[in-house]
Amino acid sequence: MPTPRVGTPVDRSIADTRVLDASGASVAVGTFWANGPCLVVLLRHFGCVGCAEQMTELAPRLGDLAHAGVRTVLVGNGSREQLADFIERHALRGAPVEVVTDPPLALYAALELRRSTWATIGPRALVEIARAMTAGHPHRPTEGDRTQQGGVLLVDGRGIVRFFHSNRSLGDHADTSDLVEAALRLRIEASVSAAVRV
Amino acid sequence: MVVLIHVANVLYVISYLVKDILWLRLLTVVAGSVLLAYYVLLPVPLWAAIGWNIIFLAINLRQIHVLLLERRPVRLSPEELRLHQLAFRSLTQREFAKLLRIAHWEDVAADQRFVTKGQALDRIMVIADGRARVEIAGAPGVELRPGCFVGEMSYLTGQTPNADVVAAEKTRLASWPQTELKTYLGRDAELRAIVQMAIGEDLIAKLGYSRAA
User: Fold this and answer.
1) A177–B contact, CB cutoff 8 A
2) For A16, phi and psi rounded to 5 degrees?
3) What is the pLDDT of residues A141-163, one digit of tens each?
4) Do B153 and A195 touch (CB under 8 A)?
């Protein structure tokens, strides 16, 4: 399974991977971008302190992503109960975002995201944990896989990869402004008025 | 003389109790100075401790200077205030003042073309006063009013404009060189996010308007 490359179509093996939605129904990942661009944000796990930090940056920008016509899907790897807790904890009910879970880590594996103890408790990760905790994010028990790392995949409505980031460590994640900028670029391209570009 | 140690340490205790970093540093400077006096007045001065305390004092005084500069009230001219209200309301006046440091002001005469189709655009602009129109063959013109961004699509995509923009009347613009703005915002994630929101809102409104037209 090849790592997604920007500008190339999403590999079939990725699109066919199935995850569980909040109701427990199995959903093929490819359906996320069947009707338009989709940003898939893979979290380390629902309780991860680095992911809490990422959510603090991402949550206020979900509206911007939605206005740019991008569907946002968060993927964790814990249980459905942990998924429900995550939604409550981050006040995501009613926000323009869906949260799904992938306990077998099938999508993580398909995207070749790192799974490493070093990335979780190595020096870089320890500094990132300290950074997140001093920013007010509490440390929580593991709610999913302990050593799995996250990433981000932005796919346009034609199934082309437009942005991909594989997190190097626990607190590493794609810059939210880079994601919104990529979404705005897609919006410009997709617009009927793309003929007018100044 | 031992009283100096007690005075210094009481000041340190108070400094640990305050939450404001400026007061913490001020109290630390006073405490450090008292301690410094103690070391100097000893029959045999403690030069190592004196040296270190001078370094601490210098660092704290420098940081106090920076904090005082950051806390100075922001003063925007009426024109800058108007631009803030028109296009950058989400920014605090202090954040906006930072952005203005790299801004240039341009005056464009009526009917003057200031964006040319097919020519690379090296800046992003906001109309501060006046009106402009986007001109493209075979498409209805879009009017740009004060507060509208110009060149934001080129800024985001890196592509050349495929339409002209002409001043419909005498127009005043605030402009930012693209490269300089990107570098500047790259150093401040929060400011970048807020500026991006302002650009995004304008862009989405503009695209929606164009689509409706």
Assistant:
1) yes
2) -85, -10
3) 999 999 999 999 999 999 999 99
4) no
Where helices occur in chain B by DSSP H, the ranges are 2-17, 21-41, 47-71, 78-87, 93-100, 152-157, 178-186, 189-212
- What span, in angstroms and rounded, lies between the C-alpha atoms of B162 and B134? 10
Below-70 pLDDT ranges, chain B: 138-140, 209-213
Asked if B126 reaches chain A (Cβ–Cβ under 8 Å), the answer is no
Residues with Cβ within 8 Å of A136's Cβ and at least 6 positions away in sequence, in order, are none
- Closest to B156 (Cβ–Cβ): which among A67, A181, A193? A181
- The reported pLDDT for the residue numbered B209 is 57
At B104 the three-state DSSP class reads strand
Q: Which residues pair with B174 in a beta bridge?
A: B105, B126
Whether A60 has a pLDDT exceeding 70, the answer reads yes
Entry pTM: 0.85
Work out the minimum CA distance from B30 to partner chain A, whole angstroms.
28
Which of A24, A29, A37 shows the shortest CA–CA distance to A109?
A29
Instruction: Tell me the H-state helices in chain A.
Output: 12-15, 49-58, 62-67, 80-89, 106-110, 117-121, 123-134, 176-190
B165-207 pLDDT tens trace: 999 999 999 999 999 999 999 999 999 999 999 999 999 888 8
ipTM: 0.81
CB contact under 8 A, B156 and A67: no
What is the average per-residue pLDDT within A54-64? 95
